[in-house]
Every structure is written in structure tokens, then in C-alpha cells.
């Protein structure tokens, strides 16, 4: 990524995927002054535990975005039913194209094109269709990635990693997930840091990089 101020769009199938996949890197981008947008396509109302309101993830994603520093008007929330993206491809693609035209991002981040979750996989496919002329990278969700090319790394500092941990902690409804553990989040960042000779990092799969003249 160049030193100029970039416009960055993160596509998240569900409200917590951006934080899990690249929360520390989001914090770094914001610290560096980049313009960060995030679009989450499902609040998973159909799978929220009955002990929580069915819209709890909407409250939680807004709190998590604030922790990372994403501006309120840079967060886009859609209401696709969970595990139905593959039945609504054209509608999904239309929404992504509207984001492309309105935001005109320099870089787009999304789940891996090899992610085994049906919503993640579908969003990644439609993301490639919409942004085939753009710089496109995939964030890591190891529990869904049987195959992941660690072809790009962003080093992060301890404060940025802590913001990721704090953002994930905003998802009270998801704390039963083993990958919501602060120890797991920290250990993965240490592992990726070891691969780059840095204390901490997050890794990404490069689909395409486009360096424009202007």
C-alpha cells in the first residue's frame, strides 16, 4: 500500500467477520489516516442464541466499529438472512456494485475465495466479480480456511492488536466461539509476526494488486 491516503472497503459476510479477520490491521489503517469503510451483509438474526435479542449483532458491530475507529457513517449494514447468500447472488452483487460506485475504494478486503462457509464463499465470489479491476485481498479466518495463501502481511503494534481484542469482546453474543478468545487472537498475531520477523502481524491472500498512475 502506498503512503498516500487510501480509501479502503472491507466486505464482511456477517457482522463480526471484519474484526475477526483483520481487526488489528483496520486499527493500523485508521491510525495511518486511511479512509476505512466496512459493509456487513448479515446480522445473523436467525442463528442468535435465544438468550439475546435477535438484533444484538447490530448493536455489537456498531460498538466494535467504534473501538477500532471506523466512523459511524462508514459502516454499512445489510439484512441478508444467514446461510442464504448463494440463493441471492444477483441482489448481493448489485449491493456490492453500488458500494463500488459510491465509495470507489483503492483497496478491497474480503474473505478468502477458498472459505468453506457458504456465505463467505459466495460473498468472495461476488466481490471478485464486482472488483475485478481493483486491488483485492482476502483476510484470514483459519477455522474456515482449509487452504490459504499467506502472500501478504501487515505488521501491527501491541495497541492495535489490543483494539482488535477489545472490538471482538464487544460481541458478547459470540464469546462462546473458541476463536473469540483473546489468547487465540494474540497467538495468531504472534505466529504471523514470526513469519515476517516482526512481533505481531496479520496475513492476507492476494487476489490482485493494481497500481494506478493517478
Provide structural commentary:
With 214 residues, the protein is α/β, with parallel strands linked by helices. The protein has one domain (7-208): LmbE-like (Rossmann fold, 3-Layer(aba) Sandwich), CATH 3.40.50.10320. 39% of the residues lie in helices and 17% in strands. The chain contains 6 helices and 7 strands. The chain has helices at 17-31, 56-68, 89-103, 118-130, 158-169, 182-196; strands spanning 7-12, 35-40, 75-77, 107-111, 135-139, 152-155, 201-208. The protein has a 7-stranded mixed β-sheet with strand order 3-2-1-4-5-7-6, with helices on both faces. Strand 4, helix 4 (118-130) and strand 5 (135-139) form a beta-alpha-beta unit. Helix 2 (56-68) runs antiparallel to helix 5 (158-169) and helix 3 (89-103) crosses helix 4 (118-130). The radius of gyration is 16 Å and the shape is globular. The protein starts with 6 loop residues before the first strand and ends in a 6-residue tail after the last strand. 44% of the residues are buried. The mean pLDDT is 96.
